[in-house]
């Protein structure tokens, strides 16, 4: 009874590093700091790393201090391989597949021991199974990323780089890695080669690329991040990280359907006057909003908002340069989307059940806007002669007016239909299966789809590519020069071509019809090596959950 009383209020932190020396040492220092501040510590090594530490440092190194104990969990690594932890991809794969259940068993054992009950988990940033364990046990979880802040910011851009088609790489030669990436806040002038090196792969199944994408996805689910740096050293980077990672937590604090999400995409530009009209329209709507403002959104100038705008909206606005858009649209706090009507955001808003106010900029955005407003009944259009009063009225209507309620009902209905389409046996599921089995696997050679290197096109094709590779063993050919070479047909009449793909390929259904097939070939391919044109079999499907 005395022991229970003594330990009842003692905080107990379970610390688990990634099993590599450069990760173990910083975690050990952090654990000692927590111990010094009154925490009971259980420091968890994987079995392989535990044996290695015993061998190199001796038994006394792991004897611990009072209320500082060491524990182990299996890691799935072969005991016979003395250099197993040097194979980083295998190690990452092993911890992901092996460690969750043993770690949960350890937590349960600790709660039944004479130690204080576990009160929190501090895990390495690339040991996200610990996040799942914390959720299972209802414990607060903190991630310790042992990278620099700029390194972590680079990793947070992996998904964005993938969606924009920069990774997997199309070309590792011809200076491709010198490409400047100018849209990452806090990383001015950064080149593709300057990002953490795991993007340097042409294989969409690359273990490390997908491992890091997976680990970054865990960040919004934790209570806090720890970085081994200081403010003055990486201030701009820390500010950018805080803005990106904080937007989901900011939404978490908002009421359901209360926030307007504002994003005009990666290409749209506005004048300074138009930016001001949007700003004051949002101010006057009195609605909370999350606004993605690219540094280059204003033609020939920086995106500067009036100081009084920031002051008037500081309690109900968040302004950042990038966010995980699909997560934002699927967040329960988001009730409407002010958009340029590009197809990616349009189909993502439909799949998320979010109504829209449209301000189309160019190309088929006008067509998407028309269908959103008239055919699908989920949107309203702002006039090209942009006025703040119209922005205010439409935002208010979308977020609570009678028409807005009807738009929300239709958006919810379309979301349900989108989910049915991608579910097992749904139209999109069957069409993708038909495409793979009936077309792509019938070709004699590896094939590729020609595309234009514009982020809206490349993003969708990149996801299509990932989906195909996930279902087949085929790899696509990414030669130099910024285009994908592809073939159509087979045998002696096969066409090999290099060209561009119109956005309609990703968004519309085509019938098995010679005329439409000819139009697609004529519009898409710029360099036919064969004089004949074959009928093409084209099927439609949704990539929202592909």
Commentary on this structure:
- With 546 residues, this protein is an alpha/beta fold.
- It has 21 helices and 14 strands.
- The longest helix is centred in the C-terminal third of the chain and has 21 residues.
- The radius of gyration is 26 Å and the shape is globular.
- The N terminus and C terminus are likely disordered.
Work out the number of β strands. Answer: 14
Alpha-carbon distance between the two ends = 56 Å
Which blocks of ≥5 consecutive residues have pLDDT under 50? 1-6, 444-455, 472-546
Estimate what percentage of residues fall within beta strands.
5-15%
Query: Main beta sheet: strand number and arrangement?
Result: 6 strands, parallel
**Nearest-angstrom radius of gyration?**
26 Å
Q: Identify the strand order in the major beta sheet.
A: 3-2-1-4-5-6
Estimate percent helicity. 40-55%
Family: Belongs to the UDP-glycosyltransferase family.
Organism: Buddleja alternifolia
Protein name: Glycosyltransferase N-terminal domain-containing protein
Domain Glycosyltransferase N-terminal: 14-137
Give a summary of the structure in a few sentences.
This protein has 546 residues and is of the alpha/beta class. The protein is built from 21 helices and 14 strands. The chain is 42% helix and 12% strand.
Which terms summarize this structure?
6-stranded parallel beta sheet; Glyco_transf_N; about 550 residues; alpha/beta; disordered N terminus; glycosyltransferase; UDP_glucos_trans; disordered C terminus; single chain; 21 helices; transferase; about 40% helix; globular
């Amino acid at each position: 009874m005395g022991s229970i009383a003594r330990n009842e209020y003692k905080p107990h932190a379970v610390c688990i590093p990634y099993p590599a020396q450069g990760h173990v040492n910083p975690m050990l220092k952090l654990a000692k700091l927590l111990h010094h501040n009154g925490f009971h510590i259980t420091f968890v090594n994987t079995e392989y790393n535990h044996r290695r530490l015993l061998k190199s440092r001796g038994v006394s190194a792991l004897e611990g201090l009072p209320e500082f104990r060491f524990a182990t969990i299996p890691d799935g690594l072969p005991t016979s391989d003395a250099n197993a932890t040097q194979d980083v991809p295998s190690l990452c794969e092993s911890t992901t597949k092996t460690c969750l259940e043993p770690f949960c068993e350890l937590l349960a054992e600790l709660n039944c021991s004479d130690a204080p009950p576990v009160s929190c988990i501090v895990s390495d940033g690339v040991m996200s199974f610990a996040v799942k364990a914390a959720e299972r046990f209802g414990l607060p979880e903190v991630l310790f990323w042992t990278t620099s802040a700029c390194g972590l910011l680079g990793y947070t851009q992996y998904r964005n780089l993938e969606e924009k088609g920069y990774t997997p790489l199309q070309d590792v030669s011809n200076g491709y890695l010198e490409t400047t990436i100018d849209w990452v806040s806090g990383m001015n002038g950064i080149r593709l080669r300057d990002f953490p090196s795991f993007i340097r792969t042409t294989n969409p199944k690359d273990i490390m690329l997908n491992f890091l994408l997976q680990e970054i996805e865990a960040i919004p689910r934790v209570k806090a991040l720890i970085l081994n740096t200081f403010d003055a050293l990486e201030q701009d980077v820390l500010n950018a990280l805080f803005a990106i990672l904080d937007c989901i937590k900011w939404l978490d604090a908002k009421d359901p359907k209360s926030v307007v999400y504002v994003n005009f995409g990666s290409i749209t530009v506005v004048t300074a006057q138009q930016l001001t009209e949007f700003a004051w329209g949002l101010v006057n709507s009195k609605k909370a909003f999350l606004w993605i403002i690219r540094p280059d959104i204003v033609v020939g100038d920086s995106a500067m908002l009036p100081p009084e705008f920031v002051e008037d909206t500081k309690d109900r606005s968040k302004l950042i340069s990038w966010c995980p858009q699909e997560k934002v649209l699927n967040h329960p706090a988001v009730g409407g989307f002010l958009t340029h009507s590009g197809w990616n955001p349009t189909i993502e808003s439909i799949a998320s059940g979010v109504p829209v106010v449209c301000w189309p900029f160019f190309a088929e955005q006008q067509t998407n806007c028309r269908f959103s407003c008239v055919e699908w009944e989920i949107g309203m259009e702002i006039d090209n002669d942009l006025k703040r009063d119209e922005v205010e009225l439409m935002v208010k209507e979308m977020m609570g007016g009678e028409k807005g309620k009807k738009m929300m009902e239709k958006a919810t209905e379309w979301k349900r239909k989108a989910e049915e389409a991608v579910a097992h046996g749904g139209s999109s599921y069957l069409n993708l299966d038909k495409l793979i089995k009936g077309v792509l696997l019938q070709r004699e050679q590896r094939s590729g789809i020609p595309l234009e290197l514009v982020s809206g096109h490349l993003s969708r094709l990149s996801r299509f590519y990932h989906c195909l590779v996930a279902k087949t063993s085929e790899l696509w050919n990414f030669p130099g020069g910024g285009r994908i070479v592809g073939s159509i047909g087979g045998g002696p009449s096969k066409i090999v071509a290099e060209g561009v793909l119109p956005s309609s390929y990703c968004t519309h259904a085509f019938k098995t019809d010679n005329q439409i097939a000819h139009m697609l070939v004529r519009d898409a391919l710029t360099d036919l090596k064969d004089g004949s044109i074959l009928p093409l079999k084209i099927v439609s499907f949704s990539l929202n959950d592909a």
